[in-house]
Amino acid sequence: MYSAWILSIGNELLIGRVVNTNAAWLARRLTVLGYRVMRIVAVPDVPEEIAEVVRASLGRGVRALISTGGLGPTPDDITAEALALALGRRLRLDVEAYEMVRSKYSEGGYAMTPEREKMAWLPEGSRPLPNPIGTAPGIFVEVGETLLFALPGVPREMEAMYEGHVEPILRARGPNLHFAERSLRVVGVPEADLSRLIREAMRMSDKVYVKSHPRGHEVRGPVVEVHIYASAERREDAEDAVARVEGFLRDSLGGHVEGA
Question: Domain 178-256 belongs to what architecture?
Fold first, then answer.
């Protein structure tokens, strides 16, 4: 199994000041690639807390760990330090990363400072990932079979870096799977009464997962969104598995299904 963990770093997440949209976005993209997201963890800006999760992922043999946040120039940006701590490696000034940072500031007429240089110090054995929007490079390091990626916390920067540099690596090193999905809106049937049908649907194929999401009141006005998805080596197999489960649910629920 190609498993993945997502590590969200930042005090602002834990006090509720910022909604963790990065984790949801990454989970979606990883799932489509065929990775199974097993954990989404949020930790404060504390090196030991970050390092603990990194070490745990390595101990579990996780295929991919992606962190977001903590790569900037301020004192609370300590992700690189925490990675070095977790891996038992030293931080070093990376020449390639330094040039990435220097050139960005040079475009705006700014000189390098110790705070800006801080973003170019990476754990030994890692390499920088270009940031097409912001200034802080990402970090990529392989430890055994585990691929570790540290990305910025700013959503636009994270998404651009993921699409341009992380996803190609994950595709090349990960499962060669295709993803298919469908959602049905079920009206007038309590979620508790759907559970039996969902269990039966999931027995139809080992490629399929079915999940219900309540959208109304369980008793006074039940509305449930049923999400069906499947992964398979052939696109046709994934789509066929989803179609068979959808057909089963439609036949079983009759007029309670309102479109797709």
Answer: 2-Layer Sandwich (3.30)
